[in-house]
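Section 3.1: Structural characterization of target chains.
Under the original work plan, the team committed to producing a structural model for every single-chain target entering the pipeline before any wet-lab resources were allocated. The record below documents one such target. The sequence was received from the expression subgroup and is listed exactly as submitted; it comprises 392 residues.
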Amino acid sequence: MNRRMRDVIVVGGGVVGAACALALADAGLDVTLVEGREPAHWQAAQPDLRVYAFAPDNAQLLQALGVWPAVLSARACAYRRMRVWDAAGGEELCFDADRLGREQLGWIVENDLLVDRLWAALPAAGVQLCCPARVEALEQDEDGVRLRLDDGRRLEARLAVAADGAESTLRQLAGLQVTREDYGQRGVVAYIDTEHDNEATAWQRFLTTGPLAVLPAGTRRSSIVWTLPDAEAERVLALDDVAFGQELTRAFGARLGAMTLASRRAAFPLRRQLATAYVAGRVVALGDAAHVVHPLAGQGVNLGLRDVAALRERVLQAQQRRQDWSSPDRLQRWARERRSDNTVSAYGFDAINKVFSNDEMHLTLARGRALGCVGKWPPLVSAFWKRAAGLG
C-alpha cells in the first residue's frame, strides 16, 4: 500500500512517458513513473533499429531538462539536408540548412539511446519509479485518480498521464476511444552501408508501393524505413542479404550507389490511430496513446514530445499565476491545442501517403510537378520546414 497523494502518475516509460515524468518533475511536481519493465541499457555496439528524425524544438526541450548533451555525446547524427523526390518523375524538393539559416535540420537518434538517457536523469529529478509494475484498475473522481498495480500497490494522484503506447491500458480504463485505419503496409527497417557518402542528408523517394527513407547514421552508413504493402514486405524480408541489398538499391534508384545490408531486418505494421478525446476526468493521454501516424515524415515521437512540452508549459504558466495547474479547463485547453495539431498532421501524412503510394496516371503526372513547384518557392519551403521542426 502506498496511499500518499502525488501530483502526477505517468504510466509508460518510453521516450514520451519518461520525458513527461522528467518535464513535470522539473516543473516542481511530485511525479511517479509506472513501467512494466526496466529498459535495457543502450549499447553503442548494438544500434537500435528504431530511429527518429529528431526535431530542433524537441532538442530544445531535452536541453532544458539537462538530457540533450548526454544524447549528443553518445550518438546523434545531424543531418543538414533533406531531399524528397518521386520515382515517377518530376523535380525534387530540397531542404537545406544553409538556406534556412540553421546549423542542421535535425538529428537521427536511436530510440534506446533516448530512453536510456532519460531514465538516467529520473532519480536526480526526484521521480519515483514503480518498475516492474502495470496498471490493472482505475478509479477517479473530481479530486484525483486511484490506480491499482499488478504488484498490489495502490497509488493516488491529482492527475494520471497515459503514455503507455498505442494499446494503452490506462487510456482504455479511462474510457477514451480511438479511431483506426490500418494502411495494409509495413515499415521495413535496417541499417545499410552505401557505396557513396550520404552527404549528411535525409533522403526520401516516393514509390508506388510507399516511401523509402534513407537516414544518415554515419558517413556511409544509413538507417532505412522502407514502406511496403504487407505481402511485399514479407517477400523482401525473406530475401537473402545480397538480394535484399540489390533490391533496395534498385528501389532507391542507385542514388547513393550500391547498398549492402549492415544489420538484421525487422518490420512493423503501419496505421493511423487517433483518440477521439485526450482528457477523461483526471486522466490525460499523450504520445502514441493519443495518436499514431504514418512514419513517412518521421514525426511520431516529435508530436508526442510536443504534447509533453505543451503540458509542461501549461503547468508553468499556472504556477506563475498561482492558479490550479490541474484544473479541468486548463487540461481541456491543452487537449484542444494538441488534438488539433496532431489531427491535422495525421491526416496530412495520410493524404501524402495515399497520393504518392499509387500508380493512378493523373496523380502520377501531377505529384512530381507539385514537388518541384514547392521547391522553387523558398518561403513555402521555409514554412514547411518550420512546421516539421516545431518552430513555426
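The mean pLDDT is 92.
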